[in-house]
Amino acid sequence: MEKTDAKFIAHARGTAPGIRLLPVSAADGYMYPAIDFFFGCRALAGARRGARGFASLAAQSLEAALKCLLVRASFDVNKLKSHQLRHNLVGLWHEAAQLGIAVEPAPPDWCKTLNSGHQSFVFRYTEGRHGYVTPNQHEVLTGLTQVLELIEPGAPDWA
Predict the structure, then answer these.
(1) Is 54 exposed, middle or buried (0-12, 13-18, 19+ CB in 10 A)?
(2) Is 21 helix (H, G, I), strand (E, B) or coil?
């Protein structure tokens, strides 16, 4: 990517000449991956050998969605990057609940289960472990849909 001027942050190489990429807000920088990861985990739902991929993408989606909601509520972006909150789904849920923007006041069980594998990187690296626990996929998809609806109400095809 090549820097152009203050109004545009980058020129997209390999595309048609003159196409420029506009800056992405912090909230949108979290929203887009939240949505993409959701559709990835939805595609893996029910797959015979996709439980870890499903859980990993669902956790990434939830993390990004909660961070999007928090940034939109003027939560300090630097605090989101702190060791206490960075990959802590339960902590992010609590922060959202304190601001009145969570789906439920307390993190549901599916969120806690995702957190146990996401925060400790178990879904990514199982070295030294015989297995891992993932939440019920239907509960995750239902819950994630509710969280994503807070970001993009009425967005096409969440279900």
Answers:
(1) buried
(2) strand
Whether the predicted pLDDT of 98 surpasses 50? yes
Would residue 86 count as lying in a domain? yes
11 bridge partner residues: 2, 20
135, with CB counted inside 10 A (0-12, 13-18, 19+), is buried
Q: How many domains does the chain have?
A: 1
Q: What is the CATH number of the domain that holds 16?
A: 1.20.120
Tell me the residue range of the domain where 67 lies.
10-151
Q: For 52-73, write each residue's pLDDT tens digit.
A: 889 999 999 999 999 999 999 9
Q: Are 94 and 78 in contact (CB under 8 A)?
A: no
The torsion region of residue 68 among left (phi > 0), alpha (psi -120 to 50) and beta comes to alpha
> Is 48 a member of any domain?
yes
